[in-house]
Design a protein that fits this description.
The chain is an all-alpha fold and 344 residues long. The protein is globular and about 60 Å long.
Length: 344
Amino acid sequence: MKRPHWPSWMPIDPYIVLLIGTVGLAALLPAHGTGADVASGASTAAIAFLFFLYGARLSTREALDGLRHWRLHGTVLACTFVVFPVLGLAARGLVPVLLTQPLYQGLLFLTLVPSTIQSSIAFTSIARGNVPAAICAGSFSSLVGIVATPLLAAALLGSGGGGFSADSLVKIVLQLLVPFVAGQVLRRWIGGFVARHKKVLGLVDRGSILLVVYTAFSEGMTQGIWHQVSAVRLGALLAVEGVLLAVMLLLTWHGARALGFGRADRIAIQFAGSKKSLAAGLPMASVLFGAHASLAVLPLMLFHQMQLMVCAVIAKRRAHDPEAAAAPAGPAAASRTAVGTGSR
């Protein structure tokens, strides 16, 4: 089996180009009136179907098998749902000097979403790290995030979180958790079909997210929300996110070393514990923030591309570490990426 391939140059994720194009389409041709109602209904259905597919893909047996690496997975979960949110709360001091309140709310939401799956696996494999651990860590993070992200959002964003309210928890249960559980229950019968049609369903995944983005940014355009963002504020947001990513990359690497993890495990912890899932975050933001989702997801979209570019460079450097020569990459395990969910 070949290891997951990642370009040697700093990657521009083609999906990010599609997302930017979707934002541009929403800016030029936002949905109005009946069209907006149809787009909103289709977006709601797409989100439910998206999480149904997540549930149908996730192998419960593989997740349970990975529990024997509880220290590693606990470390990744702590980075994702404890350290990241703490840093997000600390960034509150940047308002209003560097960030506006809506952009800060989006930045804080970014720190609450689960980790990636596929890109964490790819980078871990390239760097010759513990690929099976990266698979399980990403899967656990996604599973925990379905419950943890909305609860953290309720606690940290509150009713002032750009439209977030207690009703959003009910929507999360109905639109995300119930479809996910249904997918898990039906996986016994439809798991084979999902695995055989992974590529086609992957396109459905991405198309659903594009629809969610178009709906969110259309609502933002009709409400004039983009008048709140300037080029200077966007530049400040990018700088803040660069610092956030750098801090997490350093903490995950040196913190894992201090906890006694070996090189292969440290690589898995660094890549799984320092990144955030665009695919999980976008539909969650749509449910949680409603008409205010456009600004809420902007920091996540920027962070996603930044983490890909930076981690691609780190993975290539890790592959040429002196320790790497004696460390097998575990390529066979990489073929188990069926638990993944696309460009997460």
